[in-house]
Specification:
The protein is α/β, with parallel strands linked by helices. The chain is about 50% helix and about 20% strand. It has helices spanning about 1-35, 75-85, 85-110, 120, 125-135, 160-175, 190-195, 215-235, 245-255, 270-280, and strands spanning about 40-50, 55-65, 110-115, 145-150, 175-180, 200, 235-240, 260, 270. It binds ligand C2E and calcium ion (CA) (3 copies).
Length: about 280
């Protein structure tokens, strides 16, 4: 038994070292990819549920190594966050997205949303970087929404304080703030009332799996209704994520949710395709 235990420990060591090696290799490749400009920003429309018209687009980063299929952010954002690389990458995404979205805003009045990682919000220069990206692109501050996750503003200590200072300063400029993946965190509801936010994005895990008659659909619907009512009573705009079916869109409209985003409307697509979609669907 002792020998087996020892073998297990040795195996575990190898697995650990391998995982760490894997992470270091990924990080090296990511650093090189930033220098080589292998990133792209794709966009997914956010649709007004009352009339089906796109009102905004969310910027979603992609890593496209030459000759390979795009790599999704879930596979590299965590490593970029741990290493701090997200600060440079996030700034690049913001600048790229503002440049893409400025002419869309001019032509169709559509706005832009950009994901911001917690690491970016403890950068003392974050406010200045956002203001500079807006100025250089010509996109007005009122046409930009920053998406942050629930935890960012309620963590204790200086980090939440620094994030609050940035978001308050940016809101004073006209930038809006959205809580992303709402309902998946563990924070108190009081922050919805007290903190500088404008939009709630309801996490896609709350969408009913079926067409309203399946197991758990009633509970899911009740949760979405509760979130929408809560947001409305606080004067926040609601956006539902993961709208995959016409049933989802109809249900959300009936519940009074303002906007929807999901495969039912469109997948994330490159900038030229999104511009084509806006040209065809937005009535000016
Ligand atoms: P997120 O911010 O919650 O973005 C929505 C994700 O859901 C996107 O995945 C999108 O492709 C996917 N999605 C959209 N509609 C549907 C649907 O109807 N059904 C399902 N099942 N999924 C849908 P993506 O592009 O792979 O991004 C994953 C996550 O990576 C994002 O989740 C966000 O947290 C992070 N991310 C993406 N771009 C950036 C970025 O520029 N900066 C930072 N910090 N994070 C980013
Ligand atoms: Ca998001
Ligand atoms: Ca989300
Ligand atoms: Ca999500």
């Amino acid at each position: 038994a002792k020998a087996a235990g020892k073998d297990c420990a040795a195996l575990f060591d190898v697995a650990m070292r391998d995982e760490q090696g894997e992470r270091i290799r990924l990080l090296e490749r990511l650093r090189a990819a930033v220098d080589a400009g292998e990133f792209a920003v794709h966009y997914q429309p956010i649709v007004n549920l009352d009339n089906g018209t796109p009102t905004a687009a969310e910027a979603l980063v992609r890593w496209i190594p030459p000759g390979q299929a795009p790599i999704g952010p879930d596979r590299f954002i965590p490593a970029a966050e741990d290493s701090g690389l997200i600060v440079a990458l996030g700034e690049w995404v913001l600048r790229r997205a503002c440049r893409d979205a400025a002419p869309w805003y001019q032509r169709w009045g559509t706005t832009l949303t950009v994901n911001v990682s917690p690491r970016q919000l403890i950068d003392p220069h974050f406010t200045r970087k956002v203001v500079s990206a807006l100025r250089d692109s010509g996109l007005p501050a009122t046409a930009l929404t920053l998406e942050i996750t629930e935890g960012v503003l309620v963590r204790s200590g200086g980090h939440a304080q620094q994030a609050l200072v940035h978001l308050s300063a940016l809101r004073a400029e006209g930038v809006r703030v959205a809580i992303d993946d709402f309902g998946t965190g563990y924070s108190s509801l009081a922050y919805l009332r007290d903190l500088p936010i404008d939009v709630l994005k309801i996490d896609r895990s709350f969408m009913p799996a079926g067409n309203g008659h399946g197991d758990g659909d009633a509970q899911q619907t009740a949760l979405v209704r509760t979130i929408v009512d809560l947001a409305r009573s606080l004067g926040l705009t609601t956006v539902a994520e993961g709208v995959e079916t016409a049933y989802h869109a109809d249900l959300l409209r009936a519940l009074g949710c303002d906007r929807g985003q999901g495969y039912h409307f469109a997948r994330p697509i490159p900038a030229p395709e999104l511009a084509m979609m806006f040209a065809e669907t937005v009535i000016v």
